[in-house]
# Entry
Amino acid sequence: MKNSEKIYCGPERAEARSLLYAMGIPGEQLGKRPLIGVVNSFNELVPGHFHLRSVAEAVKLGVAAGGGIPLEFPAIAICDGIAMSHKGMHYSLPSRELIADSIESMAIAHGLDGLVLIPNCDKVVPGMMMAAGRLNIPSILVSGGPMATGAGSHGEALDYSLAIEAVGRYKNGEIDENELEEVAQGACPGCGSCSGMFTANSMNCLTEALGFALPGNGTIPAAYGARLALARRTGMRAVALVNEDRKPSDIFTREAFENAIRADMALAGSTNTTLHLPAVAHEFGIALSLDDFDRFSASTPNLCKISPSGHHHMDDLHRAGGVQAVLRELLDGGMLHGECLTVSGKTMAEQVEGATVCDHEVIRSLNEPYSASGGLVVLKGNIATDGAVVKAAAVCEEMLRHKGPAKVFSSMEDAVQSIYGGRIKKGDVVVIRYEGPRGGPGMREMLAPTAAIAGMGLDKDVALITDGRFSGATRGASIGHVSPEATNGTAFSILRDGDTISIDIPGKTLEVQLEPDEIELSGGFFDYAEKYGLVTSAIHVPARIAREKSAEIQEAARTVYRALGCAGFARVDFFLTPEGEIVLNEVNTIPGFTAHSRYPGMMRAAGLSIDQVIDSVISLAVSP
# Structure
């Protein structure tokens, strides 16, 4: 029995049917034709989504032609390019969960039998796939397609990443304001996801590798009629998937995710894929880690250098054979699981059988790759014990190995100001901490500082390391996702200006040159709220600071915990920064009390004295 039959059929569901009749749905179709939700992330704020009305209309025509009833509803979409470098970026990554939550809510509440998911940009693609995993009803995805490559006044290729780098060139005096505006006018010529292998296009390409979208989804340009034809075929397949009872769990297997990681390495996709693929896999009960990406990177050649890794763009990749041609190369090399099922009804091997490479400069063969290993590399070391990620395909030869003094910043804005202010010199390693998932919060993208480094002509001389993340448009020795993040009171939090940082991308290491006892974390543990049976928390203090301020730290910790106990707090995690400041990280209250903060369950009080922290914490506790 279909979901819709349970919700709308039978005498006892007459009131539910009446509401569908109000929208003009014929009664004779209910219970006989599947209800297909068409999730349209159209809006007039994001160029990648501005044209999705026409895509959704084509999908609905396909659903109707296939014998289903299309029912459209919306999903939000945030443009990372517009949200960049201001408080809006705090909301970008969390929006992925909002998208998944909202689709899950709508599909269950309204008894849908299947879904067609229409995303295009960044968080929308993984958010929609996460929803498919939670619901596990027949689903298929078709995106809006990539934007055309832009062009400058002299005919040179332009894209979004070059537009933001142009700001650095302007600050450096290389171009004037009129020339900067010419770049802005030419970089993004029309609708679609920005034209490089940035996060949106990376994820859309990987939907083909996962088998969750029809061939061409990743590369058919947004403006092509072929995109609308793909949407119509997708709508028809959605109905067929319901009739075949083919569910997302049949598609999203561990082998399918391994195919996606292989394709990611061959394409040199965005570093954000290391966030999104594990999140999608989690919804299917599959654990993916950075170690999986590292393992497949070592054994998968890099076959493509699409912007920002090289001068090719998405329309070049499409003309060269698209994602299917890349997958065919990998399959012929024994690197894909050809038995994986796809939403087309074919296995992966059957689907790529007719694919061919039309331009071997855009898609290299396995015998002549751009590099023997994948486009993404996982680094580990004493300041990234759980790993960090770099898009090695976009790093120039000179920066694959680098050693230099740290210039440490506690926010992206401070770093950008220093870069544009000329305070970053050749050989430096820019360190931006407290920008991780908890510290940001929201793990903001760091495209502004990396583009500033490139625009100022320092991309062959300066590296950047952060516990935040990067835009897929980032190039250079930009190392992100440092884990554990600084806000957890880790070794990354103790770095100081002048500490020597050693980066070895081929060797996969990231180290600060300090003695082990200088970076060892030590701390005192204090019991509290014992009657609630709660786990003891801790104050983590770097050893190099503990030696200097041992007595002060221990007394401060006791004072804070006494204050928190009196205030009714059940759990507080905080740590001392190298400057001797307390950072309050996570706050939960015991029953009967409420913590009020700008971000629920999380407050950052960096820059406050110990007394101010105590006062702030106590003021958050409100008796009912």
About this structure: Confidence is low (pLDDT under 50) at residues 521-543, 561-624. The first strand starts at residue 35 and ends at 40. Residues 142 and 217 are 6 Å apart (CA to CA). DSSP finds 22 helices and 20 strands in the chain.
